[in-house]
Specification:
Length: 661
Amino acid sequence: MSDRYLTIEEQLSLPIVNNPVISPDGKKLAYILKRADWNTNKYLQTVVVYDAAIKTTLHVSNDEFDCSLPDWSPDSKKLAFLQKSGGENKNDVMIFDFEEKRTFKLLTFENDISQIKWSRKNDGLYLVAASPESDELKKRKENYGEFEYIDEEPKNSSLYFIHLSRAMKKYSSRFELPKDMRSEETLFDKLTDEKEFHVSSISLSPDGNYVALMAPPTSDVNDFDEAKVMLMDSERKLKELPFKHPRGFVFSPDSKELAVVVPDGEDPWMDNGAIEIVDLSNLSKERINVEDDLNVELVSWTERGFFVSWIENSTISLGLLDMNGHLERLTDRDELVLTCSVTYDGKHIATAMGTNAEPLEIYLDGKKITKTAVSYPERKRVKKERISWKSYDGTEIHGVLNLPEDFDSSRRYPLVVLVHGGPTWTALAAMITSSYYPVEQLVSKGVLVLEPNYRGSEGYGRDFRKLNYRNLGIGDYEDVVSGVDHLIEKGFVDKDLVGVMGWSQGGYISAFCATYGNRFKAASVGAGISNWMTYHVNTDIHEFCHRYLGNNPWEDPQIYEQTSPMTYIKNASTPTLIQHGGSDTRVPPPNAFELYQGLREMNVPVRLVIYKGMGHGADKPGIHRAIMRQNLAWFSHYLLDEPLEEALMLKQSEIEKTEEK
């Protein structure tokens, strides 16, 4: 093994496997391989198929295109998937024929596709796709130019059905007849009206007679709490099913019932998930409450019971839930199941699973079928250790501590706190590398990295998730600082060399840490909130403030003030790096500019980087590389006294020096 850790470029170049989709017969498996294409500055996804009978793996999509959404035909002989091609990212619906070992383009769809499901009757494909622009809107643009009536013109998606025989006939005709001799048929039907509701996702019954639709009023994320569950029968008639605040759904193996995850209380944001089952013949319902204080998500309903996943203690677990709410764990507490696919009989399971010692790999019936780890360069890797401590109010806080392989508890190390987003996400104790923060590289320089699961994090029960209600920032700050104090008391952290960084909600907490106190030597605020009033009036998700602060800023200005980093700007002394997407609608850029100007006028060292065209997160390896290198430069300067300017400005000479080390 090499005596050094991964570089940023090596880290971003690591292949990632995910999204396994098992064939109905359980003998084949499709999954996604994601890689960074440095030539085009894009992440490209490839669809890969594994055949368990002959133990072979085949790449079925073109490596030049981004491909996703694989789904098997009922007879397991064909696979459909989405291919983005051309400079305009056209939506090509592709078919891989397993018997003929070939891939062909079935058709090109005009609008963005978010879901592909093969009809269980094998007569077509269901698509969830953005609805086309109306003729009226096209004329308005032509006559007046582009403008938008906010909250009045949602861009809803609809459900479509592609007639497989017609599409196949048209595909074959290109090899059989000249264009002027072909008869044209309608290849697809539009099954829902985007004016009535938005289709966010669908589920198909095993017998092919029903489609369940998750249908919020509009595509506005603020409307998702008001989603309805609509049922479409074989005659394409729709009726609403009696569910409130649905989160996900699956059909029973016999297609007679539908199970839906709903809140077990009145709060759709904070409560755990219960499962309600509706009998499709008479709409009678029964309810399953999970015995444990866990927030489950439905994976599949099989003859063995409900396969569910949940976050708990820095991992994502898989289990079987019975009709009495009893949960049987199927994975170890050190195994992380990111995604899963199960056959209807429950006999065959495919997972994307990783551990602290191994990156994500694809497993079929417990057997590892990928060897992603083999392609990793021989490098040292950080050790991840679960730890816990008491916050100042007595609340037990958990987290993950990243340590070097040669960690020496008698030494005093610099420390950087990495705060996750959400807030209902979690720091994971598995070998999953960050695309935003240089954890491996900081550890390689002798800096420890603490990832706290502050109050509000997922995986520690309903009451813990509610602890930052009307207590954002202040409670989070205390959870972070008490974790720092815990490590200082253990004797291996230098109290004068502590930094904090985070993205989104983690960026907000980092901003709060930078202004509320003077405990931190340096901070990095990624896409963070600086002022809840500024956030509330600019964000695309106004409901967030209502759920966590309890009111709007006009009715309760005090809670907005006491939880905003800008309130404490006169106290600020922490050098702060601010990174923000120029097209971020979730946490819009005014948050970054407000914090930047406030710190400047308080004479606090501050740098603001705006990534043009980027939304709330980066989707290009080059931008991820810049974000990580800038963070590495910032903390290397303020914690390790290394030169800043050339490294922060990404001068090539400085990058080459780093690579030589």
